Amino acid sequence: MRDSAFKKTATILEIALLLFSGIYLTFFLYTGYTHLKYPFDLEWIEGGYLLQCLRIAEGYPIYISPENAEFIPYFYTPLYFYVTGYLGKIFGVNYFLGRGVSYFSIILTCILMSIIVFRETRSKIASFLAPAIFLSAYSFTGFWYDIVRSDSLCLLLIIISFYLILFKGNSYFVLILSSLILVLAFLTKQPAIYFIGFSPVAFLFNNYKKTILMLFSSLFFSLLIILPSNIITKGWFLYYVYDLPSGNEFIPSLFYHIIWTYIIKGLPFFMILLLIVFFTNLKESRNFLKSEISIWFWGLFSSMTYFVSSMVYPGGYVNGLIPLVCFLSMISSTTLYKLSPGNKIRCLLYILLILQVVIFSYNPRSQIPTKNDYNLGNRFLNMMSSVESDEIFVYLHSFYPVMCGKKHQIHFGAVHDALRLKTRVLPEAFYNKFRNRTFAMVILDNKIGEENPSGIDRLIIDNYYFSHKIFNDYEEGFYTKTGSKSRPNFLYLPRNRSLGLFEKKDTKTDELPVPKGVIKIELPDMFD
Questions:
Q1: Among candidates 207, 209, 217, 153, which has minimal Cα distance to 179?
Q2: pTM metric for this prediction
């Protein structure tokens, strides 16, 4: 085949890649829009995050003694909570705000990715492909780009720092600023510390002064923020964000599993593309540690370490892949257009990227809330609103009672961490709420097993009895959309205590009655 034929084939493949990745970019934008308007949990821990943001909005500290029966914080660094909480003082803390911080963080990240790739390649096509390929991995990374989580804000800060180092790295002031931003990324999500720790790699072989400057700047800003925070909280800040996470059990056997499952099987064509680009441009790449390519190497290596460190502990999830996929998307788009391989190689690279996007492909319908989700969620809130008591415990979805004007309660995520880590126990006052049957309702996502229940389960069944399922089995909807699929459904009521809320089930229709309530969630325009 002559070179002209390869050139024509490369053009066709380029158009195919643009169309294919562009479809998934559109999928994300629309799905994210529907998520912003959805007023219920998309993932089980969202409500717990919002409770932590709500405490900040109400002027309460989050790093407090674990003897509090209504609140125990997560062992995550706090920047996302403070950003959302302080915005909540103005707009109110809700799902729209919590997801909005993530959604707009990922949009800004994509804009920065496009700018970075365009400045590197001067190609509008490359600048479009980088964020489009990244967004096509929405499913592969757990559908976490736009939920009430800190991942997207953390990524935005990492990419801002990367941009400054890559294009403004000759300025010592900019390097100091980028060090501060990396510290803020760490204060958003702990694994970002690897971008700080490996940041000297970007200059290690061509400017030792910049290496020293970045190390000392990062150390200075870390101490400047962390030490006062620890003093103000009487030591609880480091207890939650360092002492407790350090109690996590490292599982070495997971390393081989995650490399095989997520890197070799999940990102094979990215990996092949990188090897081809490197070996076909060996002369240009030979001194990469002495050029700007070392900065790209820093980003790629740090994001890989970020991912691995997130997965080799209990509770690790695919959201740890988000920075890695981001850097791989930028590197693939940049090298494809900057290093100018021949048309034969270009055809091969396009095919590899198309195949990688195929691996990422998904059906967005599973993530888009339905009319039934809204109706069942509204019914659930009505049920809780009809209860006069302010004490309702919804194990996995603790923001729902707050939406009905009830008291804050500890979220399952904090309970789970408390019981999993040997260094921490739940406050006795929390246990007493079950023993004294303070909660008018306990609502679980799963029914407690009858054989040898232990821990919180034993406490519940000793003091509460299973009443009924809130939703019939044939009623689909109101499930979480990502992570573990679940919904609050199993109602437990205090023993020897009647609320007078539920009449007997209609045996003819087999439908459960729904008490009157006061909460009404308006359906969005798409259901009119």
A1: 217
A2: 0.92
